[in-house]
Amino acid sequence: MFITGEQKSNTVAYADFEKYEDQIVTITGTIHNIRMMSDFAFVILRTARETIQCVYAESFSNYRMGEDVKEECAAKITGKVVAGETKDGSKRYEVQIHDIELLSHPAEIPPVVITKKQVNCDLSTKLDYRPVTLRNPKERAIFKLQEGIQRGFREYLTKEGFTEIHSPKINFAGAEGGTNVFKLDYFGKQVYLAQSPQLYKQAMVAVYERVFEIAPVFRAEHHDTSRHLNEYISMDFEMGFIDSFEDIMNMEAGVLKYIMQLLKTEYKNEVELLHIEIPEIKEIPVLKFMEAKEILMKTFKYKPSDMKDFDPEEEQLLGKYAKKQFNSDFIFITHYPSKKRPFYTMDDPEDPEYTLSFDLLFRGLEITSGGQRVHDYNAQVEKMVKLGMNPEEFATYLMLHKYGAPPHGGLGLGLERLTMHLLGAKNVREATMFPRDINRVSP
Description:
The protein is an alpha+beta fold. The chain is built from 11 helices and 18 strands.
């Protein structure tokens, strides 16, 4: 016997039903729901992306459906493809069952009802039984949509000449500094889980000029809020030979335009099932940090408690301002104070109290942080010393600067937060397949 790599299937996908109208086909999937009527039954088959309505009646064939046909049985169904109409007049196909071959049986009835339009239980229960609740068509559509976001990010940047990289997640030091890092005993040495791929993607700018990564990052923050996770997926890119940090913002705007168009076209079913309003992006307004603070104080009569950053309420107000003033779901806030940005962020030469950095807010929630990086060796060492850091502990990172680095910058975009706000969800865990926070490390 030889394996050739050629994939041949004896089953038919719903997308091809039009070609098989009034013909006998075989389809595979899991029996999602059975609705018994007086003289017939609806058997809903859940496939990888759709649910297919199959109809059983004794008049269709010699096959007789037994009591062993139950929900969550894996099955192979053979039957005739017939066309009908939906309420809006569009064509819909179903299968008249001629035979059901059961491939597996559940040992128990699922503990949560997943056959309704949505899973009606509290979030904690939904997460406790995640391997089951994700089988609900609406729940799983969230993560198919999330696939589209990552795919769009990858496709656009590849087209723009970026190289995909994979940086280590066990590091000698935290990228952001501070105490919010997970410490590990690594064969007797103390190491850390990666807060971001920052130090490595900067190093690779001197190799490939433009790089990106989609990978988990870890933050040992004691938050227990609706917007924070201790492990999340960060979509990062870094680009060299920039003229200013506006180049990075323009690249992100292009990425987001591409992602939203991809979701509209190739993920239309998920968008409609989840009732998502995809934002139109023509141009994204930009405000400097202090301009935004003045708007909050003058327009909204809001008295900020922190003049170095924004609290969640301020972000929400700025989101409302962007929508009303610019009809934009997005707004860039630039020139954050130096004291609130990481050591590798370049200070504004015109006013070193502020940085050449930015955040992107989406419908009142920060989803991106980015900016221009320090690329000069002496300037980076000087800034580290000023911040009380020991440059010798970052010798491998400083190789980039010591042996020459182009002007560069980049960003990190939180996948779950972007998904959460597309959904209009109130908790980021709704947009996380298997959340990890201060209370949850299972399933």
